[in-house]
Amino acid sequence: MNKNSSNIMALAPNTSNKRETVCIFGTGDFGRALGHKIIQSGYPVVFGSRSTQTSSLIPKDAEVLSHAEAAQKAAIIIIAIQRQHYNFLTSLAEILHGKVLVDVSNNLKINQYPESNAEYLAQLVPGAKVVKAFNTVSAWALQSGTLDASQQVFVCGDDMEAKQMVMDIVRALGLTPLDRGSLLAAREIENYPLQLFPMWKFPILLTLGLTTFFFFYCLTRDVIYPYVYENKDFSFFIAISIPNRICPILALILLALVYLPGVLAAIIQLYRGTKYHRFPDWLDKWMLCRKQLGLVALAFASLHVLYTLVIPIRSFVRWRISNQIISQALNNKTQPLNNTNAWLSDSYLALGILGFFLFVLLGITSLPSVSNNVNWREFRFVQSKLGYLTLILCTAHTLVYGGNRFLSPSSYRWYLPNAYMLSLIVPCIVLVVKFVLIFPCLDKPLTQIRQGWERNPQYSE
Ligand code: NAP
Fold this sequence. Notes:
Strand content: 5-15%
Shape: elongated
Bound molecules: NADP nicotinamide-adenine-dinucleotide phosphate
GO biological process, one term: copper ion import
Membrane topology: Multi-pass membrane protein
Distance between the termini: 31 Å
Largest sheet: 8 strands, mixed
Strand order of the largest sheet: 3-2-1-4-5-6-7-8
Family: Belongs to the STEAP family.
GO cellular component, one term: endosome membrane
Catalytic activity: 2 Cu(+) + NADP(+) + H(+) = 2 Cu(2+) + NADPH; 2 Fe(2+) + NADP(+) + H(+) = 2 Fe(3+) + NADPH
Order of helices and strands: HEHEEHEHEHEHEHEHHHHHHHHHHHH
């Protein structure tokens, strides 16, 4: 089913369930915010509370009763109470028998308890049908109206009918229910709000590691070496020159690391002769954060563009150019135009501009609003074919930057090559392996394997 049709479903709630009263236990922040939204959607709401006194904070169309009285008025009861206070529900077990209990709770830590809160609730009230839902929606978002139909509400539970009733309420609120299966999934759903940028951890740590390494590498070559051997103070390189070396290096390495797991996966599949065997965990995790790696790479490429734009106004650069002009004037000698250098310089810039343009295009197509509007083939074309073209252009940009100094022994300082040479290692490996994989003798079996063909069926066990 495509996205549009699911949105249409989200806008068309099951009206047969619309008039049934919904009970909410707990008049705290979440209970009140959810109650307000449910009333707006046309459901009568009754609150079950320890105190039956209403306050101005409670939606005025809602009744506030004791837990037992409120529970008797509805088939669905949303438990908007912290897990540690669930114990009192055992005394209501008889009244709650056969009712749908919606567990909305979250914890403070990942895997805080041996079982999920929803499973704990099901143990406390065995006669009830427990459904997990709404825990990824915040009270603030409900109150401020910042929720839209694209907001997904994860729902899970063992009773299909109960789950359906809850999903009808979710749709009535203008949200999109996402059925995650049985109540066993509650543990995972409860961990979602506690995850801190899970997909960004590896890219950020890797970026920090690489940035630190290349910073000290460039500092040694470009600042410490001239100071020790020529007594020249180039410490101001730390402001622009060194960052402008690190940014393109990181952009290129990280872009190559977006494509490296793909070629590793291809080699593994060719070796095993099947796709029905899981990749090692580290490769799975690496593949899942390719988009984030690509976005960090794009950020570094953009910084490189900005740093490059300010080169002509740098005092050091202006000083060097005026010095060259003056020395030519004093010697009464004009340097002839070196055609090779002019070609290298223009090609280097042209490759950089084209590479950056495609880089930006890749970044734009990775945005959900764009990727949702292209089909799978178009997405693959942009991310894979254009992605490799970007990698080729950026690698060529770096190779041409080296130009005729590339691999020249005079460019080594303390046996350390220029930093850009190190940045070429991973992209060159990726491009060479990818090139080899294109040969029909490897591409054909790989395509067959990806279509389900198996050479060694024992691997799929
Ligand atoms: P809260 O403001 O602390 O409210 C919890 C309510 O539970 C209280 O107002 C109280 O209602 C009731 N309660 C407190 N102690 C009790 C006890 N000993 N026995 C029976 N009832 C008791 O918490 P909340 O922020 O509304 O969160 C409620 C639940 O929603 C939690 O499980 C939370 O994890 C979940 N949740 C919250 C949010 C959010 O943004 N706040 C988002 C998603 C999920 P009465 O005074 O009416 O009895």
